[in-house]
UniProtKB/TrEMBL annotation:
Residues 32-258 form the PBP domain. It comes from the Bacteria. Part of the ABC transporter complex PstSACB involved in phosphate import. It is found in: Cell membrane. This is Phosphate transport system substrate-binding protein. Belongs to the PstS family. The complex is composed of two ATP-binding proteins (PstB), two transmembrane proteins (PstC and PstA) and a solute-binding protein (PstS). Keywords: Lipoprotein, Palmitate, Phosphate transport, Signal, Transport.
Length: 289
C-alpha cells in the first residue's frame, strides 16, 4: 500500500492548474515533443497534437506512436520519450524509475472508470464489489452464486504490467491476491480479452475487465455488456459524478528534471484548462471533476 500513498501524493501536488488560464501552446509538428502512451490514450494524444500543431488528425497520426503502457513508462524513464499519456504505474515501473534515479510527475488529465464485462446472453447484470474480489480470488466459482446460471465462471485477466492489469490490482483487488488463471484466460491485448469474453461455445461463462473508454469508444464489440457494480451502471454521467464505484484517471507523466524551458509544462497546463478539457470531451473522454 505504500506505493499508492506516495503515488497519490504526487498526483495531488500536480493538479494545481485545473481551471487556470494557460494559453494553448503553438508548436510546429516538426518540433513536437516525443510522446508515448497506452493504447487507450491514442485518440487523446492524436487530438491534442492536432490542436497544438494546427495540423489535421491525418497529418499528425503517423507521428503519434504509443507503445502500450509498460513500454511507455520504460521509454520515459530511459529518456526515449518526453511525455506519456498512460494509466497508473505498476510496482515494477515505479521500482525501475527508482533504480534509474528518475522521479516522475504524474498529473491526472481526464476521468475514467474501470469496468467489468460479460456476454450479453449472461442474465447477470450486477455484481457487488465484494463479489468481484471473490470471483477473482477463486472464492466464488459459479455464476449461480451471484444470481446467474449454473455455469463455472471463466475469469479472464491481462498480463502483469499491462495498464488494465495494474488497474485491476490497484483499484479492485487492493490487498487481495487474485487466483492464478489458466494461460488461456490471460490475454495480451485489451481487445483480445473483450473478444474472448464475447466468444463462447454453448455457454456465456466469461467475465473480464477493461477501461470504459476502450470498451465503448474504441473496441465496440456488441456481444459484450458492461456490468453494474453495486447497482451503478458505468456511463459518462456516473463516471463524472463519481457514483460509479471504480473510477480512476488517465495521466500525463513526465520526468521531474524536465527543463523548465520545455513545452511539456505548457501542454499539461493547457490540458487542465476549460478549453483543454473541452477538447478531451470532444475526443470522447470524461472531463475531470
Amino acid at each position: 500500500m505504500k506505493k499508492n500513498v506516495l503515488f497519490f501524493i504526487v498526483i495531488l501536488l500536480s493538479v494545481s492548474c485545473i481551471g487556470c488560464d494557460a494559453q494553448k501552446p503553438n508548436i510546429p509538428l516538426e518540433s513536437y515533443v516525443k510522446v508515448d502512451g497506452s493504447t487507450v490514450t491514442i485518440p487523446l494524444s492524436e487530438m491534442l497534437a492536432a490542436a497544438i500543431t494546427g495540423e489535421s488528425l491525418e497529418t499528425v497520426r503517423p507521428h503519434i506512436l504509443h507503445n502500450k503502457t509498460h513500454n511507455a513508462y520504460v521509454n520515459l524513464i530511459d529518456g526515449k520519450a518526453d511525455l506519456i499519456f498512460v494509466t497508473s504505474p505498476s510496482e515494477e515501473e515505479l521500482a525501475y524509475a527508482k533504480e534509474q534515479d528518475v522521479s516522475l510527475v504524474i498529473t491526472p488529465i481526464v476521468s475514467e472508470a474501470f469496468v467489468f464485462l460479460t456476454h450479453t446472453d449472461n442474465p447477470v447484470d450486477n455484481l457487488s464489489f465484494e463479489e468481484l474480489q471473490k470471483i477473482y480470488t477463486g472464492e466464488i466459482t459459479n455464476w449461480s452464486e451471484v444470481g446467474g446460471p449454473n455455469l463455472k465462471i471463466a475469469a479472464y485477466q491481462r498480463p502483469v504490467n499491462s495498464g488494465s492489469q495494474t488497474g485491476f490490482l490497484d483499484l479492485v483487488m487492493q490487498d487481495k491476491t487474485p487466483a492464478t488463471p489458466p494461460m488461456e484466460h490471460i490475454h495480451a491485448g485489451m481487445g483480445d480479452l473483450i473478444d474472448a469474453v464475447a466468444s463462447y461455445e454453448n455457454q456465456p461463462d466469461a467475465i473480464g475487465y477493461s477501461y470504459y473508454y476502450f470498451v465503448v469508444d474504441m473496441w465496440g464489440n456488441t456481444s459484450v455488456k458492461l456490468l453494474k457494480i453495486d447497482t451503478v451502471y458505468p456511463d459518462k454521467k456516473t463516471i463524472a459524478s463519481g457514483d460509479y464505484p471504480i473510477t480512476t484517471s488517465y495521466y500525463a507523466v513526465y520526468r521531474e528534471n524536465t527543463p523548465k524551458s520545455s513545452p511539456i509544462y505548457e501542454i499539461v497546463d493547457w490540458l487542465l484548462t476549460e478549453e483543454g478539457q473541452d477538447l478531451m470531451e470532444a475526443a470522447g473522454y470524461v472531463q475531470l471533476d
